[in-house]
Design brief:
Blueprint: E1 2-3, E2 10-11, H1 38-57
Antiparallel strand pairs: 1-2
Pfam families: Zn_Ribbon_1 (PF13240)
Domain Zinc-ribbon: 4-25
InterPro entries: Ribosomal_eL40_sf, Ribosomal_zn-bd, Zinc_ribbon_dom
Length: 58
């Protein structure tokens, strides 16, 4: 369940607009990785490598 940002009503997950007030609901961006900057990609890869090293060191 989602919450309407305008009126605070509980809204079904698949709804595109609030049944209570009729306002448009924000669309969730499921492809978040497409908006990453090169620096963020580098840090994500570096963090993953460091995590793998830590797990292997145990």
């Amino acid at each position: 369940m989602k919450i309407c940002p305008t009126c605070g009503a509980t809204v079904p997950q698949e709804a595109k607009q609030c049944p209570e007030c009729g306002s448009e609901l924000p669309v969730e961006n499921k492809e978040w990785y497409k908006n990453l900057t090169p620096t963020e990609v580098f840090l994500l890869i570096l963090g993953s490598i460091m995590l793998m090293i830590a797990v292997v060191a145990l």
